[in-house]
Amino acid sequence: MSQTALPPGPNGHFVFGNLREFGTDVLGFFTRCAREYGDIVRLRLANRTAYLLNHPDYIEYVLVTNNKNFIKHSFFWRHMRKMFGQGLLTSEGDFWLRQRRLAQPAFHRDRIASYGEVMVAYAERMVDGWGEGEMRNLHEDLLSVTLEIVAKVLFDADVAKDVEAVGQALDAITQESAVRLRRPFYIPDAVPLPSNIRYLRAVRRMDKLVYRIIREHRRADQDAGDLVSMLLESRDEAGRGMSDRQLRDEAITILLAGHETVALALSWTWYLLSQHPTAERQLVDELRRVLGDRLPCVADLPALRYTERVIKEAMRLYPPVYSFGREAIDDCEIGGYAVPAGTTLFMSPWVMHRHPRYFEQPDAFLPERWDGDLVERLPKFAYFPFGGGPRLCIGSRFAMMEAVLLLAAIAQRFHFSLVPERPVTLFPSITLRPKDGVWVRLSER
Length: 445
Ligand code: HEM
Description:
With 445 residues, this protein is of the alpha+beta class. The protein has a single domain (19-444), classed as CATH 1.10.630.10. The chain is built from 18 helices and 12 strands. A hairpin with a 2-residue loop joins strand 1 and strand 2. Helix 8 packs parallel to helix 18 (396-411), helix 13 crosses helix 15 (305-317) and helix 14 packs antiparallel against helix 15 (305-317). The radius of gyration is 22 Å and the shape is globular. Bound molecules: protoporphyrin IX containing FE. Protoporphyrin IX containing FE binds next to helix 13 and helix 18. Protoporphyrin IX containing FE binds at residues 72, 88-89, 100, 150, 253-254, 257-258, 261-262, 265, 320-321, 324, 385-387, 391, 393-395, 398-399.
């Protein structure tokens, strides 16, 4: 094979390439590509070339070894600038590094431990409002509670009264992002399409909330110990603080990145548990053994081993971030194939987490698979729900702690059965959502 050969890949439409399959069934399409073409697959999305990387070494090369040659997927993020601005998720280079260093202390192990109590208290408050036999959209409830938690612990703000409006705004924004992600061309925000109008209205609603939180912090003029206080206090070398706009970008990024993902991890967990009674029994046994009748707390985490494995296994099968991308800055080479500058590189936890080369019975829900030395045996990027390298999810520890505590606190009190008339279907937006939620019938334990 010559050094400059291009990877194999599916033929597509002569104009649109593989855009149709990518747009209508991205999970199935990626899986078929990996099966048919192997570790690196060349795709064409209209006028853009993209490679799908299906080998842990290639993913490591992009995220870690040679990460400086890759930037976040600029084509897509350009579409969402109004929303995310220059927040941690989307910024690059020295600017990103400075912001990451400023935000990092809020996510340190000790700091996070202090958030545990709020997480459990908010979960309790939610569960206290539920009754025997009720039918609920569990995913919607989890979206609300995770939003309240992230707002409380990182911004010291109580958004309970705004939660519905914020939820609707975030929903409108995520829906629009999914459409834009698949659109091969750029439509400026100013074009008065109904979808653009809805999107801009949602952004304005979020702005209103976040600027209010910032104003309240500036007015209070004291360190409330939360993320916004820390960012407000921070100064660069010239002694300058952050502008309201920059604070807003960081706050919105964290609100968005920090709640839906955790809600999804939990929704998919319950979707799986409701179909695997043996696993659920083992979970409840562990909760009874470790907690008895009391609520879980951070000190219980090391003992809640099975509970953690249930979450890990659910995120293997249904990774909330099922795929993400980078763009090559300079020409390079991966697996002996040429990667021209500008190529998009997709890395998909969905594909890798179900890869039969790394996981036995890849499609089976088996929390106990994480018991032995699987973690040591697995290549680093065969399981990577939180990404990796310098851009590893800043909230990964926060997310695992929240997911385990909420699973424990809620499963202690309620059992959920799926409502057969409301089937759960996959909707891969930016995140892997259940299309019409996860409808369950509650029974008290
Ligand atoms: C189960 C829950 C979560 C999952 C699966 C998840 C997944 C991810 C992934 C895959 C990335 C890397 C994306 C890339 O490299 O392009 C990421 C980045 C990020 N996540 Fe999470 N996340 C979760 C929870 C959270 C939470 C709770 C927060 C904050 C409270 C958060 C904040 C962020 C931020 C700010 C980034 C950008 C980091 C940077 O580039 O410096 N995430 N997340």
